[in-house]
Every structure is written in C-alpha cells, then in structure tokens.
Amino acid sequence: MDDTDRRLLNRIQSDFPLVPRPFGRLGEELGLPEDEVIRRVAALCEDGLIRRIGPVLDPARVGRLGALAAMTVPAGRVESVATTVSQIERVTHNYERAPIHGTCPYNLWFTLTAEAPDALAATLGAVEKATRLPVVVLPVLRKFKIGVRFSFPEEGGDG
Amino acid sequence: MDELDRRIISALQDGLPIVAEPYGEVGARLGLTTEALLERLRAMLARGEVRRLGASIAHRHAGVVANVMCVWRVPPEQVEQFAREAVRVAAITHCYERAASPEWPYNVYAMIHGQNQGDCEAVIQELCQRTGQHDYVALLSTREFKKTWTRL
Prior knowledge:
The structure holds two protein chains of two kinds. Chain A is an alpha+beta fold. Chain A has five helices and six strands. The two termini of chain A are 17 Å apart. By secondary structure, chain B is α+β, with helices and mostly antiparallel strands. A four-stranded antiparallel beta sheet of chain B has the order 3-4-2-5. Classes of the chains: A alpha+beta, B alpha+beta.
C-alpha cells in the first residue's frame, strides 16, 4: 500500500460518486487516470483491505431492530457456541472479549438485527435453546455516534 | 422503501463491481437505466435508509488490529456531557447509551479502534480525565467470529 492507495482509501469510504463513471470522477479528484483508480481499487479488494464498496444501511430506517447481546460461555465451549451464533443470518457481529480493566461476567458479545420484536426474541430464544445458555440483551437508549471511518495517514499530506 | 429499492439494495449488497461503469452494469441486471438507478440511490441516501455509500474497510488488514468495547457507569444526568466528549474522539467509532441492570450496571458504551491495546488504553485514560468518569470496564476483542453488514 502506498500513499496513493491511502489517499484513495480516505476518499472512498463515504460519498462514493453517484455518476455513471465513478472511478473516472475519483481520478479527476485525485489526479489519476480512471484505469489506474480501477486497478488500485481492484487490488485493494483482492488484498482484502476493502471488503466491498456498497450501501451501508441504517437498520432502523429500513425497518430493522438492532440489539446487542451478551453471553457467559464456559471456556471450553466458546468456539462451538460462537459458531452456533455466527450461523444465524441475522447476527452481524460476534466477538469474544476479555477485560483488560475491571471485571465482566460475559465473554461472548454479538449484535443482530431483525424485522420485528418477536423475530428478535425468537432468534435469541433459539440461541438459548441451541446452546443451553442464557442470553442477556442490552437495549439501546440513545445513539451518540455511529460511523466507522478510518483515517489512513498520508505521508505527502498535512493530515 | 419500495420493492424496487429493495431489489437495488439486494443487488448491491455484496458490493459494486469494480468496472468503469458499475451502475450501468448493475442497472442492466435490474432492467434499469444508469440514471434511474442513481436517482433511486440518491433518494435512499436523502431519506437516510442508506447511511453512506462507500468502501467498508477490513480493520485488521489495515493494521487497526485492536478493538476495545469500553463501558462506563455514568450517572444518568451526566451521560450527555460524557457523550459530548466521547464523540469528539476520532478513535471512538460508536458511542451508545444502553439500559443498565443490577448484574451489569454499565450504561455508556464506546467502541475504540487502534493499532494496539496501548492506543486504546490511552484513549480511555484521556476520556476518563476529561469527563471525570472513572468507573469502567474495558473489553478487548480476543477473537472475531463474525463481522458483516445488515442485509435485506
């Protein structure tokens, strides 16, 4: 990855151009030929650095409810319980976490979205039944910040 | 969001093709002109159904390997002030207030990304200093089992 890649990555995480030739437009902005932009973006996708370029939905506005759930999984079962959880299509994130400060009863944390409260409850119920472990739900009261954007330091720029 | 919007989102769910005219290619699959597809996408962005259109980055591949979910126990009347500080920190990507319970009395959640654990700890320390809130648990992700996006 070179400085041009980093400039590209900083540019394309949002406001991807809504024009017939978006890579050409990006090239105009960044001073690169269209085919070079396409080649670089394709390589970044190939390398796995870009997972995809597409629409990121707001679950609440497309009729989805979101939830964060936590479980206390015995050490020897984390792998198998996590696999069960990940297999559910509605689950979007699933992490094992350990405290580096303080103490916490939960070690498996996952997020899921569902189209209605009963579907959410049914999914969590299915996890409990399949794993024979309780699931704790942590409902959102307020969202203060949502939006993952990474800043790639550009050597040539002023930050 | 109507049936056509849903078909468009489904068609784009795994990403735009990396070709000179990606909207033309996707539009052709859906029987839409490029301009009709672009118009639909603009409308979904304007309505907020699409939060952003762009590249999703694999943190781990980008050297951003540490992710800490830090939870604070903040008195309800001080949550807003805490959040005002938290949202200004670039390393904090998400900040939510969630319901607390007797078993788990923490109510403010912040996701912190960094190149290593030390980076994340520095962010936490700074936020503690700035807000005066020191009752927290920091949870480092030790294994990522799934990370994907909301699908229709």
